[in-house]
Structure formats: structure tokens, C-alpha cells
Amino acid sequence: MVREKLKIMVVDDDAGVRRSIVRFLERTGDFSVFQARGGKEALASIPSVEPHLALLDIRMPEMDGFTLMERLKSRLPGLPVVFITGNDDVEYYRRAFFGGADDYVTKPFDQNRVIEIINRVIYYNLAAQTLPNNDHISIAAAWGKGLNFRDSTTGCHSERVATTSLFIGREMGLEGQDLTRLLIAAWVHDVGKMGVSDAVLLKPGKLDKDEWKEMKTHAQKSYDILNEISLKEWEGISLAAATHHENWGNGKGYPFGLKGDDIPRDGCIIAAADIWDALRSRRPYKEPMPASGSLELMEKLKGKNLRPDVVDAFFRAYEKGQIIADFSTCVNPFYSG
Ligand SMILES: [Fe+2]
């Protein structure tokens, strides 16, 4: 069976840039690419093209990329949008992500990275849209994104952990309702952080012993909050979300001190996604660890902090380019501080 090519719409008023994007996308053999010089042409072509993803410039004379995104999404509500632009202004990031963009790439860009982003965004959206009870995923996503308003240091963390968890879960053979539950839990895993004080959550430096003690309460708080939800689609979510800081090998994690197979599978998956994210993120007290060092550490944690088959699945997904490896665009679009 020949796989249907993914349809990408490229909109840029600069013919040279447009051509170079089209060329490298077509070279992969995976995409069928439609190009437009501006918003009007792009909108007019929607019925015949039906793109899986739109790659948009921002500054264009006829209609800017933000307006175009809004109009495209009103016609095709689930359409993923990635901006590819010369602007790296934080206000642009904010407008892009608030408007519903899935990612943001600045020029000059690395072609392989753009391909990786396109694949990840399309597959995340296809998966999330086709899973059962995906309306519950959207509720969890809203909650996860809302947390960005409080936590300026780990911005977009919930999104990245949810995406990474989804791909690990798929590699482990999860599908349907199981994948829905995993995704819901991943989106809300840190929701208990809303119960951690600003002084600790937003501290621009390392936490002392007492502060860590308070920070660690977020996992139990996630459990307490989510346990209030009695919907059957959310069954098991509180435990899966709360156990993302348990230690698979020695049982010395928190909040419950569970070990090995006593930790729910979904909690183990979210734990791996969470650790990867922590390693690769910039924090007030540390620079991101390079990808190579982070990968080495993930391997070292296999069978120790992390469940072995989860780590194996993580690496398979990484090889396929599904794991977010470059965090350069992951600023927090919801926070201007
Ligand atoms: Fe956490």
C-alpha cells in the first residue's frame, strides 16, 4: 500500500524562500507541497488542496501570517500551523502561540529540523484528533496550557511532555482509549503546581531544602485535584499523573514511594518525558544539557529511575524524529515577564 503523501501548504511572499522550502520538502518524498504568494491565494486554494499543515511566513504585504492563520483555522479548525519567519521577537511568539500555532521556526533554519517539526506536529494532531474521547484531551490540554500562566520558568512544559508521552506510548503499542488516557494524564501531570507558592515556583535560582519539600507537594496535589473528577473517561488519570516523580528502580520517588510495576505504566511514560524535558530545558539556575549528554543520561536511567521498556520506546521514537530535540523555540508564549 502506498502511503498518502502529507500535504503541506507553504505561504511566503518571497519567491526565493518559498522555492527553497518547497524544494527541500519535496526532496524527502514524503510531502506533496502547495505554494502560495500570499493569504488570498492560500485561502482560495483550501477546498482543492485540503492541507495537513500550513507553513506560514509572518510579514507579508497582502495579509500577515497571524490573520491568515486565523482565517485558515476558521475554515479548517484542526489545521496545524507552523510559522517560519525572520522574526524572533517575543511578542511575535506570543501572538503565534496564542493564535493557535503549533510551532515557530526562525530563519535561517535547519532543514532537517523543519522536517522533524512538521512530522511531529502532523502526527500529534492526527493522533489527537482521531483518538476516542478527544474532547477530553482538549479539556486536559486547556488545563495544561493554563498552567503556563503561573509557571514562567518551564513554559510550554506540559505541551512538550504530552507530545513526548504520546509518541512513547505509541511505540509501546498503546492505541485508542489507552492512548487517550495517557495523553490526558500527561497534559495535566503538573496541575498540582497551581498549589505551590510563587516564592518557590518562580524562584530565580536553586531551591533550598524546605523549598524543595514544598515543590515536591505538587505531585500529591495533582492527585488530589484530579481525584475529584468522577468522569469515567478520567478514571486512573489522577494516579497516572501523580506518579511521574516515582522512582522505578528503588521506590524512593514521590509522592507514594512506589517501585517497579506498582507504578502505573502511564506514570512511567510521563516520568521519562518529564525527565527528558527537564534535562533539555533552560532553568533559572542551569543551561539546557546538550542533546547528546541528555540521551546518554536517559540510557543510564534505564532500569534505575525509569522503566526499561519505556526508555527503549523513547529511543525508538527519538530515532524517528518524534521527540522534541531542539528547544530553541520553546519560549513561554503566555508570559511576558
Ligand atoms: Fe512534576
Question: What does this protein structure show overall?
Answer:
By secondary structure, the protein is of the alpha/beta class. The chain has 2 domains: 6-116, Rossmann fold (3-Layer(aba) Sandwich); 132-319, Hypothetical protein af1432, CATH 1.10.3210. Helices cover 51% and strands 7% of the residues. The chain has 14 helices and 5 strands. The chain has a 5-stranded parallel sheet with strand order 2-1-3-4-5, sandwiched between helices. α4 (90-98) links the parallel β4 (81-85) and β5 (103-106). α7 packs across α12, α7 (157-171) crosses α14 and α12 packs antiparallel against α13. The model is unreliable at 329-337 (pLDDT under 50). Fe (ii) ion (FE2) binds at residues 190, 218, 244-245, 274.
CATH topology of the largest domain: Hypothetical protein af1432
Total domain count: 2
* Rg from Cα: 20 Å
Q: Return the average pLDDT rounded to an integer.
A: 89
Helix/strand structural class = alpha/beta
Strand order of the largest sheet: 2-1-3-4-5
- Per DSSP E runs of 2 or more residues, the count of β-strands stands at 5
Descriptive keywords:
single chain; five-stranded parallel β-sheet; globular; 2 domains; Rossmann fold; Hypothetical protein af1432; 337 residues; 5 strands; disordered C terminus; alpha/beta; 51% helix; binds fe (ii) ion
In brief:
The protein is built from 14 helices and five strands. It is α/β, with parallel strands linked by helices and 337 residues long.
